[in-house]
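QA checklist item 7 of 12: single-chain prediction sanity check.
[x] sequence parsed
[x] length recorded as 196
[x] structure emitted
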Amino acid sequence: MAKEINNRGLACPQPVINTKRALEELAQGTLISIVDNEAARENVTRFAENAGCQVQVAEKDGEYYLTITKGEASVPAEIVKSAGETGAMVYLITSNTFGSGAEDLGEILMISFFNSLLEKPAPRTIMLVNSGVRLAIKQSRVVEQITKLAERGSEVISCGTCLEYYKLKEELAVGRVTNMLEILENLSGEGKVVTL
C-alpha cells in the first residue's frame, strides 16, 4: 500500500521538503503526495522527476494527487544537463537593478550586463529572487536577452514566493517558477555562483 503525505495548505517549499524526506525513507515503491495548488504540484513533480522517479498526477476537487514511483519502475534521472553552449556559471540575481544607488543607472547597467552576457557562454542557471523576478516578466527591458540565453540552454528560474508578493506570476514571460529548496540546491551544487 502506498504511503500518503498530506501537503495541503503548506507554503513553498514545505511540500517539496516533506516529499523529499518521505522518498529518502522509501527504498523503493510508491508514495502519494497530496497538494492543493499548482505551484506545489509543479515543484513536487519536478523534484521527484529530477530524483529519478516516475510521477503521475491526478486532480480531484481542486487538489492534486501525485503518485511517485521510486525504484525498479522509476525512470533514471538525467544527472548531467546537455552541454550545449552553457557554462558552469550560476547567477543569483536579487534585484531588477545592477548595484545600489540611482535606480535609473541601475536599470541601464542591468541592460548592459545582459547584453554583455550574450557574448559569453550561456550560464547554466539564472536564478531570480526578490525584485530580480521583474527581469523575467513581459514588460522587462531585458526579457529579450534572457529569452535568448534560455534558448541557448540557460535554465531561468524565478522565485514563486517573490512573484506572488509582487503580483507578477501571470506576467512571467521566460523561464519557470521555482522554490527556495531548488534555489538552495543550485547555490550549494556544482558551478561557480555569482550574486548580483
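[x] summary fact logged: The domain at 90-195 is CATH 3.40.1260.10 (Hypothetical Protein Ychn; Chain: A,).
[ ] second reviewer sign-off
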